[in-house]
Design a protein that fits this description.
- The structure holds two protein chains of two kinds.
- Chain A is an all-alpha fold.
- Chain A is built from seven helices and no strands.
- In chain A, helix 1 crosses helix 2.
- Chain A is extended.
- Chain A starts with a helix and ends in a 13-residue tail after the last helix.
- Chain B folds into three domains: 94 residues, Immunoglobulin-like (Sandwich); 64 residues, no CATH class; 167 residues, Rossmann fold, CATH 3.40.50.
- Chain B contains 13 helices and 14 strands.
- The longest helix of chain B has 29 residues.
- Chain B is elongated and about 90 Å long.
- Classes of the chains: A mainly alpha, B alpha/beta.
- At the A-B interface, helix 1, helix 2, helix 4 and helix 7 of A face helix 3, helix 5, helix 6, helix 7 and helix 8 of B.
Chain lengths: 211, 377
């Protein structure tokens, strides 16, 4: 019973969007839209579960003075301050401004900082990828040079305009072909996995692969 | 007689020269052959209008519920677009349409077309090809599962990334360090996350058997709940439920870059021996993978997000690309029923490859019929 009910629910809820994809009638599409709304509601219920976990784990870390416990104080302080001001803002319009102030002056710059780190990571990853250790890496290096030079005016100036068409050819023919191959394979894999889940063959998401 | 001739010629010239152009604007609508029909393959409440016109002039779309009724303007269009969709129609209500074109203070109208009714459709005719493929895939999966159940051995090629999972767990066990499992940043509704949980189950079971420390930080609350149940169940199945601790599966934050900062901080501070980056990733993929590379961890990544694959390939030791991620549960469990579905997936891919190759050949010899058949709307 513990397994049968989730499996039957999975079959019905899993089959319905497939049915609604091929049946555009309003009766079908309205229920499909309702299912999407239910997903958002279920996710909203799960969020407090996550917040409770953050509290429990970090309080335990602080009380036991485990390695890195000062970071837990920062996490809990952030959660309490942003959370209380945000919740208060839902009732009192005047604290919306305070939440916005904190978001724009603390959260947003921190997000931008993390995102901007990517440029350095791209440079170091590119350095590692483009070391010509074997034939494959050599081909990758040459292709990368052609594409990069084809995207800047300096490359065209050096090659008398031949880099741009070569770069475009690399991007639109071999690159697109490889990407489409991966996309078709991944889409079929996703479809196959979905069918396995709908039919109850794949059950790992229930916490176990077996009955 | 002469006076009569002069009078006729004068009247004719007068008629021709008095208002050239204006007469055309007044009497001729720029729109011809106005037609309207229910928009096919939709949920109803929509009527599509088509007409022929060469001029790039604005036209008003007018609608009434009877031919003699009051026509009201329901939208504007450009005549040369030759189409307009009325999304404010009520099903089963008769509508009459005409188009109006205004020049100065004078408006000319096209002929009226109607009655037209909108309705909800029961079959999306533009997706019949997708329906055929879906039925074919369902059928192949059932056939190959039955074949597998009969005991016929099914070959599945070696997938390096999956074969290396046990090696990665062994490395962490020998080094006495923890393993970090990142199940992506998307919710459980993403099929990649479910595929990731299947691999997590195997990793958790092995870590329970070998006593390796495992940590699963999460970004999505639903994924967090599912991951916690998966790990708990894996420890139970391994016969070590007492070794499971709540700190193994944690929730961090819903913010993408705060999550990235927290996970990379863990990597740098705690130096895990093995990092699993398996699931759906976006911009944070390179932050994780490059930080893990910097700390010297053995990294196994897996995703079907094509833009993130280059980052994982360059920074991780093993990468599960696209379909390999979805084959993981079958590959790791070796259950015949699951292997049967992988075989069916391969057969469907073979059918698609044949169709694509035939479509390319036919298109190049001037027959686009197969390409048109494969386009889903």
């Amino acid at each position: 019973m513990k397994r049968t009910v989730p499996l039957v629910l999975t079959f019905i809820i899993g089959m319905y969007p497939i049915f609604a994809f091929f049946v555009p009638h309003r009766i079908a599409s309205d229920l499909n839209d309702r299912l999407d709304t239910w997903l958002i509601i279920v996710a909203a219920f799960a969020l407090p579960l996550g917040a409770v976990n953050v509290f429990m784990i970090n309080l335990s870390k602080i009380s036991q003075r485990r390695k890195g416990w000062p970071y837990s104080i920062v996490i809990l302080a952030g959660l309490v301050v942003m959370g209380s001001i945000g919740i208060a803002g839902a009732y009192r319009q005047d604290s919306i401004g305070q939440f916005q102030y904190l978001f724009q002056n603390i959260v947003s710059p921190l997000q931008s900082t993390m995102f901007s780190l990517l440029s350095f990571y791209v440079a170091s990853a590119a350095y590692r990828a483009f070391r010509a250790r074997n034939l494959d890496a050599g081909i990758l290096l040459v292709s990368a040079i052609v594409v990069m030079m084809g995207r800047i005016p300096f490359g065209d100036m050096l090659s008398h305009g031949s880099m741009t068409p070569l770069s475009e050819w690399l991007m639109t023919i071999p690159n697109t072909a490889a990407q489409r191959g991966i996309i078709i394979g991944a889409a079929l894999g996703a479809a196959s996995m979905s069918i396995r889940i709908i039919l109850g063959i794949e059950r790992t998401y229930l916490g176990s692969g077996k009955d | 007689m002469r006076r009569v001739l002069i009078f006729i010629v004068s009247v004719a010239l007068g008629a021709l020269l008095s208002a050239p152009g204006r007469s055309q604007t007044l009497t001729d609508s720029p729109v011809q052959a106005l037609r309207a029909h229910d928009t096919p393959s939709d949920a109803g409440r929509c009527i599509t209008l088509t007409w022929t016109a060469a001029q790039v002039v604005p036209v008003s779309v007018l609608r009434a519920t009877s031919p003699e009724g009051d026509f009201e303007t329901i939208g504007e269009a450009v005549a040369s677009d030759q189409t307009f969709a009325d999304y404010r129609a009520e099903d089963k209500q008769a509508y009459y349409y005409k188009l109006g074109s205004t020049a100065g203070e004078v408006t000319v109208y096209s002929s009226t077309f109607g009655p037209v009714f909108s309705k909800s459709n029961w079959l999306h005719t533009g997706r019949i090809n997708a329906l055929v493929l879906t039925v074919l895939m369902f059928a192949l999966i059932v056939v190959y599962i039955n074949t597998a159940k009969k005991g016929k051995p099914l070959f599945i090629r070696r997938i390096a990334g999956l074969a290396a999972i046990d090696e990665a767990i062994g490395r962490a066990t020998e080094m006495g360090k923890k393993m970090l499992y990142i199940p992506g940043i998307m919710s459980i509704s993403d099929i990649q996350t479910i595929a990731s949980l299947a691999i997590l189950q195997h990793v958790a079971k092995q870590s329970a058997i070998y006593g390796t420390n495992l940590e699963v930080p999460n970004k999505d609350p639903l994924t967090f709940s599912a991951a916690r149940e998966t790990v708990k169940q894996a420890y139970l199945e391994a016969g070590k439920p007492d070794q499971y601790k709540e700190e193994m599966v944690t929730y961090l934050t819903y913010d993408q870059f705060a999550y990235a900062a927290s996970v990379s901080g863990k990597m740098v501070r705690e130096m895990p021996a093995t990092n699993f980056l398996i699931g759906s990733f976006y911009a944070e993929s390179l932050i994780f993978a490059e930080t893990g590379q910097f700390t010297g961890a053995l990294q196994i990544a897996g995703t079907a997000d094509v833009p993130q694959l280059p980052f994982f390939v360059t920074t991780c030791d093993y990468t599960l690309m696209g379909e390999e991620l979805f084959a993981a549960s079958a590959y790791l469990s070796r259950e015949p029923v699951l292997l049967g579905s992988i075989k069916a997936q391969d057969m469907t891919k073979a059918v698609i490859m044949v169709f694509v190759a035939a479509g390319i050949i036919l298109l190049n010899v001037g027959f686009p019929i197969l390409r048109n058949m494969l386009v889903a709307r």
